[in-house]
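Predict the holo structure. Ligand: zinc ion.
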Amino acid sequence: MRQIDHIVLHCTAGPQSQTIDAIKNWWKTGLGWKQVGYHILIKADGEAVRLAEDEVVTNGVKNHNARSIHISYIGGVNKNGVAVDNRTPAQIATQLRLLREYKEKYPAARIVGHRDFLVPGKPGYKSCPSFSVRDFLTKHAPELL
Ligand SMILES: [Zn+2]
């Protein structure tokens, strides 16, 4: 089994109406990626769509993919493209369910947000997933911290 150090939460930084096909097409033809960006995408209605098996390395955080699981919700920006936490209650419920499952599968892994790997103000910084994972877990699932 692949060693997993981090379970990383993301947003797609696009409209909540984005389709999975549009997102996958952007990775492939827009960015030229050979692999998908995340293992699981969470739609606005809370449905979790698996894009890759856990054993497969995906492309969520540059230089941190070999030992990571990446989970993203669709959304994370307002209509002007500004970062905003617009997760639906259904998306939050699915995040918590998946995080509990993954923490059981990989007890040593830390749950973090994409931005926790980055330094504010430095090139390449992004606010993904548009909320503080630490605050989120503290409030909803402190046992996962
Ligand atoms: Zn991200």
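Residues 89-105 form the longest helix (17 residues). Residues 10, 60, 114, 128 surround zinc ion (CB under 6 Å).
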